[in-house]
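Hi support team,

I've been running sequence recovery on a batch of backbones for a student project. Most finish fine, but this one hangs at about 90% for roughly twenty minutes before it completes. I'm not sure whether the input is malformed or the queue is just slow. I've pasted the structure tokens below so you can try to reproduce it. Let me know if you need the job ID as well.

Thanks,
M.K.
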């Protein structure tokens, strides 16, 4: 059976809505408002309704989004048809990735607006780099001195600090809350005789579950991603 241009355009709009679900997919727990905001800033997406409280609560969060799709009408003089349709998109870590968006009627009313989420607390990279001790080659690194430096930094209380000494080297992790942001803008440092290094892992390593934001990665850096 030959599809009409309207049907093909609707299929394209449904695919756009399904892609919204893929782009919102995450293992991080997020509130309905955070999911709504993330969807609302995607190009060509209008969020008309949000149900549920959080992605990791019950069935997760369901959005009704409006997307558009275009296709050529069949015939000797094909015209481009563009439609705007509404679909239900569910966001939950329990879902199979790429679950197809469901056709629904468009609710009345304008698209919803959401406040942007708060910015993550910033790790004081420059201050850390400036104040960490430089131990001469052949010297001994004093973990207590490193901890005093960290205690003296003016850091947001949400930033996690981890310090670990291993084989005469002191590894340091400073990280915003890992459960709320991706990638996590963590900073690593290592103080060892003859060298002090401060760095931010690559974006891929700072994604949840990649292990880049750990004090172990400060002492034993992961190989760079290919």
């Amino acid at each position: 059976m030959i599809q009409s241009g309207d049907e093909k355009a609707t299929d394209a709009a449904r695919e756009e809505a399904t892609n919204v679900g893929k782009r919102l997919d995450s293992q991080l727990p997020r509130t309905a408002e955070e999911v709504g905001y993330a969807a609302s800033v995607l190009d060509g997406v209008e969020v008309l309704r949000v149900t549920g409280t959080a992605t990791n609560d019950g069935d997760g969060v369901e959005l009704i989004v409006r997307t558009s799709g275009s296709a050529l009408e069949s015939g000797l003089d094909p015209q481009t048809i563009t439609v705007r349709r509404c679909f239900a998109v569910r966001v939950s870590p329990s879902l199979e990735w790429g679950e197809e968006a469901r056709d629904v009627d468009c609710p009345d009313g304008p698209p919803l607006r959401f406040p942007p989420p708060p910015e993550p607390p910033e790790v004081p990279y420059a201050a850390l780099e400036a104040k960490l001790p430089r131990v001469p080659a052949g010297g001994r690194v004093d973990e207590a001195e490193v901890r005093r430096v960290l205690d003296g930094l003016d850091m947001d209380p949400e930033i996690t600090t981890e310090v670990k000494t291993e084989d005469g080297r002191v590894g340091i992790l400073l990280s915003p809350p890992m459960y709320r942001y991706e990638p996590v803008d963590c900073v690593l440092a290592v103080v060892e005789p003859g060298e002090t290094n401060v760095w931010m892992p690559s974006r891929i390593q700072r994604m949840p579950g990649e292990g880049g934001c750990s004090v172990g990665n400060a002492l034993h850096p992961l190989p760079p991603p290919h």
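--
Follow-up from support: It reproduced on our side and the slowdown came from queue contention, not your input. The chain has a mean pLDDT of 91. No action needed from you.
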